[in-house]
Write a sequence for this structure.
């Protein structure tokens, strides 16, 4: 049958998501992870719990954006009580869900007008083009090794890398890494106090750049205040 006389069939297009819906999702995601982080930090019984739900929920603050708490000590802790495969499966599931949240959060931020010009700078575009040469390999290596992973969370969004490929790289790289950490804990049986020390060291190391910036600003402000007090306008009689 010739359908030309019936006219063109209208193309179905997905309706764009309203900006207020995107903003609400963004706020809910931030509040959800922040709430889990505060809950974990303020409840000592959670930090001593062996429940696998705690391991699952801990993945959210540990893998969210630029993580403020480290994942490794908790993996080593649970690795003493559960098989490496169980620890890896629970952790990689929580991590994959968290990376979906990361992707949507960074996409929301990248779409803001304030950041568009910044993302179009030569330095950013050069980094993105370098990432595009071998994106899956770069993600896989960063996920498997101790290389800081958070810059790649920005890159996948800026480079418009498909989220399913991103999650595949996360699962196939993070999963083996988590398995090896849990296996090491099973074999070595780290004392709890060493894990507590490791947790503290990693938290300080992760937040050191932020602390350095804060102290640097305070030092510069203090120097400016002293110089203003000794110039002509502030000099004593």
């Amino acid at each position: 049958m010739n359908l030309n006389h019936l006219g063109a069939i209208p193309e179905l297009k997905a309706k764009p998501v309203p900006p207020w819906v995107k903003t609400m999702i963004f706020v809910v995601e931030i509040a959800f992870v922040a709430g889990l982080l505060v809950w974990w930090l303020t409840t000592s019984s959670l930090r001593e719990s062996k429940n696998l739900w705690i391991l699952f929920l801990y993945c959210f603050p540990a893998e969210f954006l630029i993580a403020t708490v480290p994942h490794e000590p908790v993996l080593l802790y649970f690795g003493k009580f559960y098989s490496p495969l169980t620890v890896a499966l629970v952790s990689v599931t929580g991590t994959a869900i968290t990376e979906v949240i990361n992707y949507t959060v960074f996409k929301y931020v990248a779409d803001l007008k304030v950041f568009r010009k910044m993302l179009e700078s030569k330095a950013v575009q050069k980094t993105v083009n370098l990432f595009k040469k071998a994106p899956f390999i770069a993600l896989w290596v960063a996920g498997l090794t101790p290389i800081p992973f958070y810059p790649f969370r920005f890159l996948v969004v800026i480079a418009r890398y498909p989220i399913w490929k991103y999650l595949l790289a996360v699962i196939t790289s993070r999963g083996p890494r988590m398995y090896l950490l849990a296996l090491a804990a099973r074999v070595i049986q780290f004392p709890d106090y060493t894990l507590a020390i490791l947790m503290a060291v990693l938290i300080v190391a992760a937040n050191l750049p932020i602390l350095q910036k804060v102290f640097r600003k305070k030092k510069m402000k203090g120097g400016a205040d002293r110089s203003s007090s000794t110039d002509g306008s502030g000099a004593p009689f």
Q: What stands out?
A: Residues 74 and 125 are 36 Å apart (CA to CA). The chain has a mean pLDDT of 82. The chain has eleven helices and no strands.
